[in-house]
Amino acid sequence: MTSATQSILVIDYNGGNLASAARALTRAAADSGIDAEVTISADPQAVRSADRIVLPGQGAFADCAAGLDAVPGLRAAIVDATDAGTPFLGICVGMQLMAERGLEHAVTPGFGWIAGEIAPMDVPGLRLPQMGWNRLDFVPGAHPLTDGLDADAHGYFVHSYALRHGVPDELVATTDYGGAVPAIVARGNRAGTQFHVEKSQTVGLRILSNFLRWTPAREGGPA
Question: Which top CATH class is 6-213?
Answer without folding.
Answer: alpha beta
